[in-house]
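Bumping with the actual sequence this time:
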Amino acid sequence: MSDVTTHDFAVHGSRTALVTGSSSGIGLDIARAFLEAGANVVLNGRDAGRLAKAAAVLGRPERTAWVAGDIADPGTGEALVRTALDRFGTVDVLVNNAGTFASKPFTEVTEEELDGFLTHNLKGTYLTTQAFVRAVRAQGRRAGVVNIGTVLVEHGLAGFPASAPVASKAGVHGLTISLAAELAADGIRVNLVAPGIVRTPLHEGADVDAYGGLALLNRVGEVAEISQAVLYLADAEFVTGHVLRVDGGHVTGRS
């Protein structure tokens, strides 16, 4: 196992959610939403300092723990699960939010860049989910996995070349459907939220509102709208194998 740092404050509670890539942006807001819904939350990111700041921003130390580490390292998923069980007693929800995304023309993508997207988007999701499923099976509880994909898997943009990250996210979409079938007998539901263009730090320095016209609702999304969808799928007991677009009609309204 490579360098994995854990930090916790917490007491045992009810439901526990593990949220990868939760030091900022969508992941941090998903953590906020689970805390406000009464859950315990284990945060994750690669930078311990940023995670400590994120935990302070959330302001619920009695129900917050964090694990610093790269999800592409199987030890990170194992540490997330171990921290949740040690501090809160259960693992109930996994949100695979961590990943990377960048635009680059197809023929200019290097092998190293392609490997990076496949590793951090697909392999990391795969390995973290393995650790979670093993723990859920051991505790004999029903549970849910919510993956974060992208509507660009269904609707590419000519002006935004992103073949490498989209290919890796397409793998996450396929993994979602396959695991929903494989894990149903264990009482584990697996779903995916596919955001459209959302106002996050990923777009720092760009005029993100200029993309609003791509959606039928003529605006970009906000992180809280993704969090709302994640909480719905985490709670929806008769929903599995579903891809929920949260895109303002980006795919439906394509021209």
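The tokens above came from a reply further down the thread. Residues 111-139 form the longest helix (29 residues).
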